[in-house]
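new request in #modeling-help
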Amino acid sequence: MVTQSEENYLKAIYHLGKQGSIAVSTNAIAEKMTTKASSVTEMLKKLAEKELVDYKKYQGVSLTKKGKTIAANVVRKHRLWEVFLVEKLKFSWDEVHDVAEQLEHIKSQKLIDELDAFLEFPTQDPHGDPIPDREGNLQKSQKIFLSQVNQSVNCSCVGVKDSSASFLKYLDKNSIALGTAIQVVNKEPFDESMNIKINDSELTISKEIANNIYVKLN
Amino acid sequence: MVTQSEENYLKAIYHLGKQGSIAVSTNAIAEKMTTKASSVTEMLKKLAEKELVDYKKYQGVSLTKKGKTIAANVVRKHRLWEVFLVEKLKFSWDEVHDVAEQLEHIKSQKLIDELDAFLEFPTQDPHGDPIPDREGNLQKSQKIFLSQVNQSVNCSCVGVKDSSASFLKYLDKNSIALGTAIQVVNKEPFDESMNIKINDSELTISKEIANNIYVKLN
DNA sequence: TTATATTTTTAGCCTTCCCTAAAAAAATAT
DNA sequence: ATATTTTTTTAGGGAAGGCTAAAAATATAA
Protein backbone atom coordinates (compact mmCIF):
# COMPACT_ATOMS: atom_id res chain seq x y z
CA MET A 1 0.00 0.00 0.00
CA VAL A 2 1.18 3.46 -0.93
CA THR A 3 0.06 6.25 1.39
CA GLN A 4 -1.28 9.60 0.26
CA SER A 5 1.88 11.28 1.42
CA GLU A 6 4.06 8.82 -0.48
CA GLU A 7 1.99 9.45 -3.61
CA ASN A 8 2.60 13.17 -3.24
CA TYR A 9 6.34 12.69 -2.99
CA LEU A 10 6.40 10.40 -6.02
CA LYS A 11 4.39 12.94 -7.99
CA ALA A 12 6.76 15.75 -7.05
CA ILE A 13 9.78 13.70 -8.14
CA TYR A 14 7.96 12.79 -11.34
CA HIS A 15 7.33 16.44 -12.22
CA LEU A 16 10.80 17.62 -11.23
CA GLY A 17 12.45 14.78 -13.12
CA LYS A 18 10.69 15.56 -16.39
CA GLN A 19 12.96 18.33 -17.62
CA GLY A 20 16.48 16.92 -17.71
CA SER A 21 16.72 13.31 -16.63
CA ILE A 22 19.33 13.89 -13.93
CA ALA A 23 18.54 12.96 -10.35
CA VAL A 24 16.25 15.27 -8.40
CA SER A 25 17.69 17.05 -5.36
CA THR A 26 16.34 16.89 -1.83
CA ASN A 27 15.96 20.65 -1.63
CA ALA A 28 14.04 20.84 -4.91
CA ILE A 29 11.53 18.35 -3.55
CA ALA A 30 11.29 20.19 -0.25
CA GLU A 31 10.58 23.45 -2.04
CA LYS A 32 7.99 21.94 -4.36
CA MET A 33 6.17 20.38 -1.45
CA THR A 34 6.65 23.28 0.96
CA THR A 35 8.15 21.04 3.56
CA LYS A 36 11.61 20.73 5.16
CA ALA A 37 14.59 18.96 3.64
CA SER A 38 14.86 16.72 6.68
CA SER A 39 11.35 15.45 6.12
CA VAL A 40 12.21 14.75 2.51
CA THR A 41 15.31 12.74 3.42
CA GLU A 42 13.28 10.62 5.77
CA MET A 43 10.65 9.92 3.14
CA LEU A 44 13.25 9.12 0.48
CA LYS A 45 14.62 6.38 2.70
CA LYS A 46 11.15 4.93 3.06
CA LEU A 47 10.51 5.08 -0.69
CA ALA A 48 13.90 3.49 -1.43
CA GLU A 49 13.04 0.73 1.04
CA LYS A 50 9.88 0.07 -0.97
CA GLU A 51 11.88 0.18 -4.21
CA LEU A 52 9.91 3.09 -5.61
CA VAL A 53 12.99 5.31 -6.00
CA ASP A 54 16.72 4.92 -6.54
CA TYR A 55 18.40 6.89 -3.81
CA LYS A 56 21.99 7.29 -2.71
CA LYS A 57 22.87 9.66 0.10
CA TYR A 58 23.81 13.15 -1.09
CA GLN A 59 23.26 12.10 -4.72
CA GLY A 60 19.59 12.89 -5.25
CA VAL A 61 16.84 10.50 -6.36
CA SER A 62 15.07 9.20 -9.43
CA LEU A 63 11.99 7.04 -9.82
CA THR A 64 12.21 3.32 -10.43
CA LYS A 65 9.93 1.80 -13.03
CA LYS A 66 7.48 0.90 -10.28
CA GLY A 67 7.62 4.39 -8.79
CA LYS A 68 7.15 6.02 -12.16
CA THR A 69 4.05 3.97 -12.88
CA ILE A 70 2.48 5.01 -9.59
CA ALA A 71 3.36 8.66 -10.12
CA ALA A 72 2.02 8.69 -13.68
CA ASN A 73 -1.20 7.17 -12.44
CA VAL A 74 -1.62 9.89 -9.82
CA VAL A 75 -1.04 12.52 -12.50
CA ARG A 76 -3.52 10.72 -14.75
CA LYS A 77 -6.15 10.82 -12.03
CA HIS A 78 -5.44 14.45 -11.21
CA ARG A 79 -5.87 15.54 -14.81
CA LEU A 80 -8.95 13.44 -15.47
CA TRP A 81 -10.63 14.95 -12.42
CA GLU A 82 -9.70 18.41 -13.65
CA VAL A 83 -11.45 17.70 -16.92
CA PHE A 84 -14.48 16.46 -15.02
CA LEU A 85 -14.63 19.57 -12.85
CA VAL A 86 -14.40 21.96 -15.80
CA GLU A 87 -16.51 20.08 -18.33
CA LYS A 88 -19.23 18.75 -16.09
CA LEU A 89 -19.31 20.81 -12.91
CA LYS A 90 -18.75 24.33 -14.25
CA PHE A 91 -15.49 24.92 -12.45
CA SER A 92 -13.18 27.51 -14.00
CA TRP A 93 -9.48 27.06 -14.72
CA ASP A 94 -8.30 28.60 -11.53
CA GLU A 95 -10.59 26.65 -9.21
CA VAL A 96 -9.79 23.07 -10.11
CA HIS A 97 -6.37 22.53 -8.65
CA ASP A 98 -7.04 22.21 -4.93
CA VAL A 99 -9.96 19.86 -5.42
CA ALA A 100 -8.12 17.70 -7.96
CA GLU A 101 -5.28 17.52 -5.46
CA GLN A 102 -7.65 15.71 -3.12
CA LEU A 103 -9.46 13.61 -5.72
CA GLU A 104 -6.24 12.24 -7.21
CA HIS A 105 -5.77 10.05 -4.14
CA ILE A 106 -9.08 8.17 -4.37
CA LYS A 107 -8.28 4.50 -4.84
CA SER A 108 -10.47 2.57 -7.29
CA GLN A 109 -9.43 1.29 -10.69
CA LYS A 110 -13.03 1.03 -11.82
CA LEU A 111 -13.68 4.63 -10.81
CA ILE A 112 -10.89 5.99 -12.93
CA ASP A 113 -11.63 3.75 -15.91
CA GLU A 114 -15.31 4.71 -15.89
CA LEU A 115 -14.52 8.37 -15.37
CA ASP A 116 -12.19 8.24 -18.37
CA ALA A 117 -14.95 6.72 -20.50
CA PHE A 118 -17.56 9.16 -19.17
CA LEU A 119 -15.34 12.06 -20.24
CA GLU A 120 -14.84 10.37 -23.63
CA PHE A 121 -11.16 9.61 -23.19
CA PRO A 122 -9.69 13.10 -23.08
CA THR A 123 -6.00 13.48 -23.94
CA GLN A 124 -5.45 16.89 -22.34
CA ASP A 125 -6.43 18.55 -19.11
CA PRO A 126 -7.91 22.07 -18.94
CA HIS A 127 -4.39 23.57 -18.76
CA GLY A 128 -3.36 21.79 -21.97
CA ASP A 129 -1.18 19.24 -20.26
CA PRO A 130 -1.32 15.68 -21.60
CA ILE A 131 -3.10 12.96 -19.64
CA PRO A 132 -1.01 9.79 -19.22
CA ASP A 133 -2.71 6.62 -20.46
CA ARG A 134 -3.41 3.54 -18.32
CA GLU A 135 0.18 2.37 -18.80
CA GLY A 136 1.59 5.70 -17.75
CA ASN A 137 2.79 6.75 -21.20
CA LEU A 138 2.12 10.32 -22.05
CA GLN A 139 2.26 11.50 -25.59
CA LYS A 140 4.64 14.37 -26.10
CA SER A 141 2.49 17.39 -26.67
CA GLN A 142 3.78 19.65 -29.41
CA LYS A 143 2.69 22.88 -27.87
CA ILE A 144 4.88 25.96 -28.34
CA PHE A 145 4.84 29.40 -26.75
CA LEU A 146 2.66 32.04 -28.33
CA SER A 147 5.77 34.20 -28.44
CA GLN A 148 7.31 31.79 -30.96
CA VAL A 149 4.46 32.10 -33.45
CA ASN A 150 5.13 34.13 -36.60
CA GLN A 151 3.13 37.07 -37.89
CA SER A 152 -0.17 36.29 -39.63
CA VAL A 153 -0.25 32.73 -38.37
CA ASN A 154 -3.34 31.16 -36.78
CA CYS A 155 -3.10 28.99 -33.69
CA SER A 156 -5.16 27.95 -30.69
CA CYS A 157 -4.50 28.10 -27.00
CA VAL A 158 -3.72 24.70 -25.52
CA GLY A 159 -2.32 25.66 -22.17
CA VAL A 160 -0.35 27.92 -19.90
CA LYS A 161 3.07 27.74 -18.31
CA ASP A 162 2.43 29.73 -15.16
CA SER A 163 -0.91 28.55 -13.85
CA SER A 164 -1.08 30.91 -10.88
CA ALA A 165 -4.54 32.18 -10.04
CA SER A 166 -3.59 35.74 -10.98
CA PHE A 167 -2.48 34.75 -14.47
CA LEU A 168 -5.53 32.60 -15.04
CA LYS A 169 -7.70 35.54 -14.02
CA TYR A 170 -5.92 37.74 -16.56
CA LEU A 171 -6.72 35.20 -19.26
CA ASP A 172 -10.36 34.97 -18.27
CA LYS A 173 -10.64 38.76 -18.32
CA ASN A 174 -9.34 38.83 -21.88
CA SER A 175 -11.48 35.90 -23.06
CA ILE A 176 -8.56 33.56 -23.56
CA ALA A 177 -9.41 29.98 -22.66
CA LEU A 178 -8.39 26.48 -23.69
CA GLY A 179 -9.27 26.10 -27.35
CA THR A 180 -9.55 29.82 -28.05
CA ALA A 181 -8.42 30.64 -31.60
CA ILE A 182 -5.66 33.24 -31.73
CA GLN A 183 -4.28 35.03 -34.77
CA VAL A 184 -0.96 36.81 -34.53
CA VAL A 185 -1.54 40.13 -36.27
CA ASN A 186 1.76 41.78 -35.63
CA LYS A 187 5.00 41.31 -33.69
CA GLU A 188 6.86 44.37 -32.46
CA PRO A 189 10.63 43.71 -32.71
CA PHE A 190 11.56 46.38 -30.17
CA ASP A 191 9.95 44.94 -27.03
CA GLU A 192 8.63 41.68 -28.47
CA SER A 193 5.07 42.64 -27.69
CA MET A 194 2.36 41.27 -29.95
CA ASN A 195 -0.93 42.26 -31.42
CA ILE A 196 -3.28 39.33 -31.50
CA LYS A 197 -6.84 38.84 -32.64
CA ILE A 198 -9.35 36.89 -30.57
CA ASN A 199 -12.91 36.52 -31.81
CA ASP A 200 -12.39 39.49 -34.12
CA SER A 201 -11.31 41.82 -31.34
CA GLU A 202 -7.70 42.91 -31.15
CA LEU A 203 -5.49 42.86 -28.09
CA THR A 204 -1.90 43.87 -27.35
CA ILE A 205 0.08 41.58 -25.09
CA SER A 206 3.57 41.88 -23.61
CA LYS A 207 6.46 39.51 -24.17
CA GLU A 208 5.87 38.16 -20.65
CA ILE A 209 2.29 37.21 -21.40
CA ALA A 210 3.19 35.67 -24.78
CA ASN A 211 5.83 33.60 -23.04
CA ASN A 212 3.27 32.11 -20.68
CA ILE A 213 0.74 30.92 -23.20
CA TYR A 214 1.12 27.61 -24.98
CA VAL A 215 -0.49 27.19 -28.40
CA LYS A 216 -0.62 24.68 -31.20
CA LEU A 217 -0.53 25.75 -34.83
CA ASN A 218 -3.73 25.31 -36.84
CA MET B 1 -10.53 21.70 10.94
CA VAL B 2 -12.15 18.32 11.25
CA THR B 3 -9.98 15.37 10.25
CA GLN B 4 -11.11 12.45 8.16
CA SER B 5 -11.01 10.21 11.19
CA GLU B 6 -13.11 12.63 13.22
CA GLU B 7 -15.65 12.77 10.40
CA ASN B 8 -15.89 8.99 10.45
CA TYR B 9 -16.57 8.93 14.17
CA LEU B 10 -19.22 11.66 13.88
CA LYS B 11 -20.88 9.75 11.07
CA ALA B 12 -20.93 6.53 13.09
CA ILE B 13 -22.51 8.32 16.07
CA TYR B 14 -25.00 9.95 13.70
CA HIS B 15 -26.12 6.61 12.28
CA LEU B 16 -26.21 4.84 15.65
CA GLY B 17 -28.09 7.71 17.27
CA LYS B 18 -30.87 7.71 14.67
CA GLN B 19 -32.96 4.86 16.07
CA GLY B 20 -33.77 5.73 19.68
CA SER B 21 -32.39 9.08 20.78
CA ILE B 22 -30.55 7.77 23.82
CA ALA B 23 -26.80 8.24 24.05
CA VAL B 24 -24.62 5.96 21.95
CA SER B 25 -22.29 3.54 23.75
CA THR B 26 -18.56 3.33 23.32
CA ASN B 27 -18.74 -0.34 22.37
CA ALA B 28 -21.39 0.26 19.72
CA ILE B 29 -19.15 2.81 18.05
CA ALA B 30 -16.14 0.51 18.29
CA GLU B 31 -18.08 -2.30 16.66
CA LYS B 32 -19.46 -0.10 13.88
CA MET B 33 -15.99 1.20 13.08
CA THR B 34 -14.19 -2.10 13.62
CA THR B 35 -11.78 -0.52 16.05
CA LYS B 36 -11.09 -0.92 19.77
CA ALA B 37 -13.09 0.64 22.57
CA SER B 38 -9.99 2.31 23.95
CA SER B 39 -9.45 4.13 20.67
CA VAL B 40 -13.06 5.28 20.74
CA THR B 41 -12.75 6.68 24.26
CA GLU B 42 -9.72 8.67 23.23
CA MET B 43 -11.48 10.12 20.20
CA LEU B 44 -14.60 10.96 22.19
CA LYS B 45 -12.51 13.12 24.49
CA LYS B 46 -11.10 14.95 21.50
CA LEU B 47 -14.53 15.47 19.96
CA ALA B 48 -15.93 16.67 23.30
CA GLU B 49 -13.03 19.13 23.53
CA LYS B 50 -14.05 20.50 20.14
CA GLU B 51 -17.69 20.64 21.25
CA LEU B 52 -18.85 18.27 18.56
CA VAL B 53 -20.30 15.74 21.04
CA ASP B 54 -21.72 15.73 24.54
CA TYR B 55 -19.79 13.14 26.46
CA LYS B 56 -19.74 12.07 30.09
CA LYS B 57 -17.52 9.22 31.18
CA TYR B 58 -19.30 5.87 31.20
CA GLN B 59 -22.54 7.54 30.04
CA GLY B 60 -22.19 7.34 26.26
CA VAL B 61 -22.25 10.24 23.76
CA SER B 62 -24.59 12.21 21.57
CA LEU B 63 -23.89 14.80 18.88
CA THR B 64 -24.11 18.51 19.57
CA LYS B 65 -25.84 20.71 17.01
CA LYS B 66 -22.45 21.47 15.47
CA GLY B 67 -21.48 17.80 15.38
CA LYS B 68 -24.77 16.79 13.86
CA THR B 69 -24.41 19.33 11.07
CA ILE B 70 -20.98 18.01 10.16
CA ALA B 71 -22.15 14.39 10.29
CA ALA B 72 -25.21 15.10 8.14
CA ASN B 73 -22.99 16.82 5.61
CA VAL B 74 -20.71 13.80 5.38
CA VAL B 75 -23.74 11.57 4.86
CA ARG B 76 -25.03 14.00 2.24
CA LYS B 77 -21.74 13.80 0.35
CA HIS B 78 -21.58 10.03 0.65
CA ARG B 79 -25.06 9.58 -0.81
CA LEU B 80 -24.62 12.15 -3.58
CA TRP B 81 -21.44 10.39 -4.69
CA GLU B 82 -23.28 7.07 -4.65
CA VAL B 83 -25.87 8.52 -7.01
CA PHE B 84 -23.09 9.81 -9.25
CA LEU B 85 -21.36 6.43 -9.37
CA VAL B 86 -24.54 4.55 -10.25
CA GLU B 87 -26.17 7.06 -12.59
CA LYS B 88 -23.13 8.34 -14.43
CA LEU B 89 -20.34 5.80 -14.07
CA LYS B 90 -22.24 2.51 -14.40
CA PHE B 91 -21.42 1.25 -10.93
CA SER B 92 -23.82 -1.33 -9.53
CA TRP B 93 -25.42 -1.28 -6.09
CA ASP B 94 -22.85 -3.41 -4.43
CA GLU B 95 -19.81 -1.58 -5.76
CA VAL B 96 -20.46 1.96 -4.64
CA HIS B 97 -19.89 1.83 -0.93
CA ASP B 98 -16.12 1.64 -0.62
CA VAL B 99 -15.52 4.36 -3.14
CA ALA B 100 -18.17 6.66 -1.66
CA GLU B 101 -16.51 6.08 1.69
CA GLN B 102 -13.42 7.79 0.28
CA LEU B 103 -15.17 10.48 -1.74
CA GLU B 104 -17.29 11.66 1.21
CA HIS B 105 -14.19 13.26 2.75
CA ILE B 106 -13.31 15.54 -0.16
CA LYS B 107 -13.52 19.12 1.08
CA SER B 108 -15.04 21.66 -1.30
CA GLN B 109 -18.40 23.35 -0.91
CA LYS B 110 -18.51 24.22 -4.59
CA LEU B 111 -17.82 20.62 -5.55
CA ILE B 112 -20.75 19.28 -3.61
CA ASP B 113 -23.14 22.04 -4.69
CA GLU B 114 -22.27 21.56 -8.35
CA LEU B 115 -22.42 17.78 -8.07
CA ASP B 116 -25.89 18.11 -6.54
CA ALA B 117 -27.02 20.28 -9.46
CA PHE B 118 -25.34 18.00 -12.03
CA LEU B 119 -27.32 15.07 -10.62
CA GLU B 120 -30.49 17.20 -10.69
CA PHE B 121 -30.94 17.40 -6.94
CA PRO B 122 -31.65 13.78 -6.08
CA THR B 123 -33.49 13.09 -2.82
CA GLN B 124 -32.54 9.43 -2.47
CA ASP B 125 -29.38 7.41 -2.88
CA PRO B 126 -29.28 4.12 -4.83
CA HIS B 127 -30.22 2.18 -1.67
CA GLY B 128 -33.34 4.29 -1.19
CA ASP B 129 -31.95 6.25 1.75
CA PRO B 130 -32.77 9.96 1.87
CA ILE B 131 -30.08 12.54 1.09
CA PRO B 132 -29.84 15.31 3.72
CA ASP B 133 -30.21 18.82 2.31
CA ARG B 134 -27.60 21.58 2.67
CA GLU B 135 -28.84 22.32 6.19
CA GLY B 136 -28.63 18.71 7.24
CA ASN B 137 -32.38 18.07 7.38
CA LEU B 138 -33.43 14.81 5.94
CA GLN B 139 -37.00 14.18 4.98
CA LYS B 140 -38.53 11.15 6.62
CA SER B 141 -38.86 8.54 3.91
CA GLN B 142 -42.11 6.61 4.07
CA LYS B 143 -40.73 3.36 2.91
CA ILE B 144 -42.11 0.12 4.39
CA PHE B 145 -40.95 -3.50 4.25
CA LEU B 146 -42.17 -5.61 1.39
CA SER B 147 -43.34 -8.09 4.05
CA GLN B 148 -45.91 -5.52 5.21
CA VAL B 149 -47.56 -5.16 1.82
CA ASN B 150 -50.96 -6.83 1.38
CA GLN B 151 -51.97 -9.31 -1.29
CA SER B 152 -52.65 -7.92 -4.76
CA VAL B 153 -51.04 -4.58 -4.01
CA ASN B 154 -48.52 -2.90 -6.34
CA CYS B 155 -45.40 -1.22 -5.01
CA SER B 156 -41.87 -0.39 -6.08
CA CYS B 157 -38.57 -1.11 -4.52
CA VAL B 158 -36.96 1.93 -2.92
CA GLY B 159 -34.24 0.36 -0.87
CA VAL B 160 -32.87 -2.42 1.26
CA LYS B 161 -32.26 -2.85 4.97
CA ASP B 162 -29.29 -5.19 4.84
CA SER B 163 -27.01 -3.86 2.14
CA SER B 164 -24.38 -6.58 2.38
CA ALA B 165 -22.78 -7.55 -0.91
CA SER B 166 -24.30 -11.03 -0.75
CA PHE B 167 -27.84 -9.69 -0.40
CA LEU B 168 -27.32 -7.13 -3.18
CA LYS B 169 -26.09 -9.92 -5.41
CA TYR B 170 -29.22 -11.95 -4.65
CA LEU B 171 -31.32 -8.97 -5.75
CA ASP B 172 -29.35 -8.49 -8.94
CA LYS B 173 -29.73 -12.17 -9.77
CA ASN B 174 -33.49 -11.88 -9.43
CA SER B 175 -33.73 -8.60 -11.33
CA ILE B 176 -34.74 -6.54 -8.34
CA ALA B 177 -33.27 -3.05 -8.41
CA LEU B 178 -34.13 0.42 -7.16
CA GLY B 179 -37.38 1.42 -8.87
CA THR B 180 -38.38 -2.10 -9.87
CA ALA B 181 -42.17 -2.53 -9.81
CA ILE B 182 -43.31 -5.40 -7.61
CA GLN B 183 -46.77 -6.90 -7.30
CA VAL B 184 -47.61 -9.06 -4.32
CA VAL B 185 -49.47 -12.01 -5.78
CA ASN B 186 -49.91 -14.10 -2.69
CA LYS B 187 -48.89 -14.28 0.97
CA GLU B 188 -48.54 -17.66 2.62
CA PRO B 189 -49.70 -17.40 6.27
CA PHE B 190 -47.82 -20.47 7.41
CA ASP B 191 -44.23 -19.33 6.83
CA GLU B 192 -44.92 -15.76 5.70
CA SER B 193 -43.31 -16.44 2.35
CA MET B 194 -44.64 -14.47 -0.62
CA ASN B 195 -45.26 -14.87 -4.29
CA ILE B 196 -44.38 -11.70 -6.14
CA LYS B 197 -44.46 -10.67 -9.75
CA ILE B 198 -41.59 -8.75 -11.36
CA ASN B 199 -41.78 -7.82 -15.03
CA ASP B 200 -44.45 -10.48 -15.52
CA SER B 201 -42.30 -13.29 -14.13
CA GLU B 202 -43.21 -14.78 -10.78
CA LEU B 203 -40.88 -15.42 -7.90
CA THR B 204 -41.25 -16.91 -4.41
CA ILE B 205 -39.37 -15.20 -1.61
CA SER B 206 -38.96 -16.10 2.04
CA LYS B 207 -39.99 -13.99 5.02
CA GLU B 208 -36.33 -13.08 5.54
CA ILE B 209 -36.01 -11.66 2.06
CA ALA B 210 -39.31 -9.75 2.29
CA ASN B 211 -38.13 -8.25 5.54
CA ASN B 212 -35.04 -6.84 3.91
CA ILE B 213 -36.64 -5.03 1.01
CA TYR B 214 -38.08 -1.56 1.42
CA VAL B 215 -40.88 -0.48 -0.92
CA LYS B 216 -43.25 2.41 -1.41
CA LEU B 217 -46.87 1.85 -2.40
CA ASN B 218 -47.87 2.91 -5.90
C1' DT C 1 -26.61 -7.83 48.71
C1' DT C 2 -22.69 -9.62 47.44
C1' DA C 3 -20.26 -11.90 43.64
C1' DT C 4 -19.49 -12.11 38.84
C1' DA C 5 -19.50 -10.42 34.28
C1' DT C 6 -19.40 -6.74 31.11
C1' DT C 7 -18.28 -2.19 29.68
C1' DT C 8 -15.42 1.66 29.74
C1' DT C 9 -11.38 4.06 30.82
C1' DT C 10 -6.43 4.60 31.78
C1' DA C 11 -1.58 3.74 31.03
C1' DG C 12 1.92 2.89 28.11
C1' DC C 13 3.60 1.86 23.53
C1' DC C 14 3.77 1.96 18.18
C1' DT C 15 3.76 4.11 13.39
C1' DT C 16 3.42 7.97 10.20
C1' DC C 17 4.69 12.34 9.00
C1' DC C 18 6.09 16.50 10.31
C1' DC C 19 9.48 19.80 12.89
C1' DT C 20 14.19 22.18 14.79
C1' DA C 21 18.99 22.11 15.68
C1' DA C 22 23.36 20.27 14.95
C1' DA C 23 26.63 17.48 12.28
C1' DA C 24 28.50 15.90 7.97
C1' DA C 25 29.25 16.11 3.07
C1' DA C 26 29.60 18.61 -1.19
C1' DA C 27 30.09 22.76 -3.80
C1' DT C 28 32.08 27.28 -4.34
C1' DA C 29 35.25 31.04 -3.63
C1' DT C 30 39.53 33.01 -2.43
C1' DA D 1 44.49 24.17 -1.61
C1' DT D 2 42.20 25.79 1.94
C1' DA D 3 38.26 28.41 3.76
C1' DT D 4 33.52 29.40 3.39
C1' DT D 5 28.94 28.54 2.03
C1' DT D 6 25.29 25.54 0.76
C1' DT D 7 23.09 21.20 0.79
C1' DT D 8 21.93 17.06 2.93
C1' DT D 9 21.62 14.01 6.69
C1' DT D 10 21.19 12.71 11.59
C1' DA D 11 19.36 13.12 16.19
C1' DG D 12 15.72 13.98 18.97
C1' DG D 13 10.93 15.42 19.62
C1' DG D 14 5.72 16.28 18.77
C1' DA D 15 0.74 15.44 17.22
C1' DA D 16 -2.62 12.13 15.39
C1' DG D 17 -4.57 7.84 15.52
C1' DG D 18 -4.16 3.22 16.37
C1' DC D 19 -3.03 -1.00 19.70
C1' DT D 20 -2.76 -4.23 24.24
C1' DA D 21 -3.18 -5.02 29.03
C1' DA D 22 -4.73 -3.65 33.36
C1' DA D 23 -7.77 -0.92 36.33
C1' DA D 24 -12.17 1.14 37.37
C1' DA D 25 -17.03 1.63 36.89
C1' DT D 26 -21.38 -0.25 35.86
C1' DA D 27 -24.64 -3.96 35.09
C1' DT D 28 -26.29 -8.57 36.04
C1' DA D 29 -26.94 -12.84 38.66
C1' DA D 30 -27.18 -15.68 42.61
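bot summary: The helical segments of chain B are 4-18, 26-32, 37-49, 65-87, 96-103, 109-118, 165-173, 207-210.
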